[in-house]
Design a protein that fits this description.
This protein is α/β, with parallel strands linked by helices. Helices cover about 45% and strands about 10% of the residues. The chain has three domains: about 5-175, P-loop containing nucleotide triphosphate hydrolases (Rossmann fold, 3-Layer(aba) Sandwich); about 180-255, Helicase, Ruva Protein, domain 3 (Orthogonal Bundle); about 275-310. The mean pLDDT is about 90. The chain binds adenosine-5'-diphosphate (ADP) and magnesium ion.
Length: about 325
């Protein structure tokens, strides 16, 4: 396994997921991987493949969001001569070319309802019809699918077939967003810094404790992909060996805590309502961080347990 294919993390949910990956890889079950963009869905798909009996067989990834419905259908099932204007010769589809191997449906949430029916039929029977053909074909293909949306919600909204959802989610694997596993940030950074230092023959950078605090409070919309890019960016800039908060790109700095000099808050002349101020600030921090205690406690400059103690009777 190359360094970049290594799955890093101590988060208990990730550890449990990796145990499921081992179990499921040994079977031919259909797997549905759910997670926001950049949480490692493709990496998990690769790990399943590597541990499966199909590891030395074909693996093809199809991005369902990148192609229009008609193209996906002919790419997937193939077509026969004269099936549509321009089909001057028959063409084999992905199911036929990957036979014996694994097909990875990335962003399956974007698959049109029309193609969903045909895919369901294939998963149930192992059979499909090339476009324009009346002759059923068979293929032995393992399906792994990934979605960056909550498919169950799409089912409720009528955008995704419930029967296909049930067939796909025989083994559901859920990757949590990076902001929910901030304790993995340091490990991942050490891994990526090591990787890029080796790749570009550079010194391995180190981050200050304050940088770690800022990054642990950051919401990471691009998840681990964003963290990896940040590490590459910091490594190649050949900054000082110890990276400080001001070395971070601007977008991260809004999560920097104001370090308060003495006299930073002026007591109003007529006095104040201290408990109300505390409740107010805690509420603002909770709203700003969507109720994430770890991030809220960072914004307030206190430990999680101190925040917990203060919120018990308040928020
Ligand atoms: N747990 C992890 N450990 C190490 N690298 C990871 C981890 N999760 C994701 N990555 C890396 O982050 C990047 C994005 O992962 P990817 O699998 O493409 O995400 P997704 O398919 O969910 O968008 C890749 O470079 C991948 O190698
Ligand atoms: Mg992906």
């Amino acid at each position: 396994m190359t360094l970049s294919k290594k799955i890093i993390g101590k988060d208990p949910a990730l550890k449990a997921l990796l145990r499921s990956v081992k179990t499921v890889a040994a079977t031919d079950a259909t797997v549905l991987i759910t997670g926001e963009t950049g949480t490692g869905k493709e990496l998990i798909a690769a790990a399943i493949l590597k541990n499966s009996r199909r590891s030395d067989k074909e693996f093809i990834a199809l991005n369902c969001a990148a192609l229009p419905e008609s193209i996906i259908e002919s790419e997937l099932f193939g077509y026969c001569k004269g099936a549509f204007t321009g089909a001057t010769a028959a063409k084999k589809g992905l199911l036929a070319s990957v036979a014996g191997g694994t097909l990875f449906f990335d962003e399956i949430n974007s698959l049109s309802l029309g193609v969903q029916v045909k895919l369901l039929r294939f998963i149930q029977t192992g059979e499909y019809l090339p476009v324009g053909s009346v002759k059923t074909q068979k293929a032995d293909v393992r399906i792994i699918a990934a979605t960056n949306t909550d498919l169950e919600k799409q089912v409720s909204a009528g955008q995704f077939r419930q029967d296909l959802y049930f067939r796909l989610s025989v083994v559901p694997l859920l990757l949590s967003p990076l902001r929910e596993r901030p304790q993995d940030i340091q490990l991942l950074m050490t891994h990526f810094f090591g990787y890029f230092a080796q790749k570009y023959t550079l010194r391995t950078p180190v981050i200050s404790d304050h940088v770690l605090e800022v990054l642990q409070a950051y919401p990471w919309p691009g998840n681990i992909r964003e963290l990896r890019n940040l590490c590459e960016n910091l490594a190649v800039q050949r900054l000082r060996r110890i990276i400080e908060v001001n070395d971070l790109p601007l977008g991260y700095l809004q999560f920097k805590r104001e370090t308060s000099a003495a006299g930073y808050f002026e007591l109003p002349k007529g006095g104040m309502d201290w408990p109300k101020l505390e409740t107010d600030l805690i509420q603002q921090a909770m709203v700003r961080t969507n109720g994430k205690c770890q991030q809220a406690s960072f914004l307030l400059g206190m430990s999680r347990s101190a925040l917990y103690y203060r919120t018990k009777n308040k928020v």
